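Escalated from tier 1: iron/sulfur cluster holo job.
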Amino acid sequence: MSTEPAPKITVATAWLDGCSGCHMSFLDLDERLIELVKSVDIVYSPLVDTKELPEQVDLGILEGSVSNDDDLAKAKAFRQHCKFLISLGDCAVNGNVPAMRNPFKLADIFDRAYRETVDCQPQIPTVEVPALLKRVVPIHNVVPVDCFIPGCPPHADAIWYVLSELIAGRTPETTKVTKFGA
Ligand code: SF4
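Tier 2 regenerated the structure:
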């Protein structure tokens, strides 16, 4: 009988246009994180040092909406490299706070953010800043998503439930443990 431990599930996370609150909720797993790392290896994330998305990842978790070129590229890269993709939090699931800019023209948003409300050297940045998309969209508008965890942020218990179910090879019923804005 083999005594080899089961291979760990590889996990990658990223935040797009979000406030990092959903990642903070992930960290709110607290002592359950110790349990989690017994079966999970976080291979790419703002929470770890590795900054290159591996070629193949079992589970991708994306926080935030798609608001600029960089978000779009990350969402596509996650879809390409992750077998299973989770949309974490209301911004990822429905646009939420970032999408509040959608009723306004981009030019008006730039004026408001970089000229009207700035006292010193008002100017619109053009160098090394990802270009904004005309509209903010949820992740599933640009790539297929396998699982949605709503909430602003989702409760750590909901994140724990979903991860535990996936690790156990089951399909999580997220509607039982999540609600928008909670
Ligand atoms: S869903 Fe809420 S907590 Fe999560 S990134 Fe958006 S605003 Fe922040």
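The mean pLDDT is 94.
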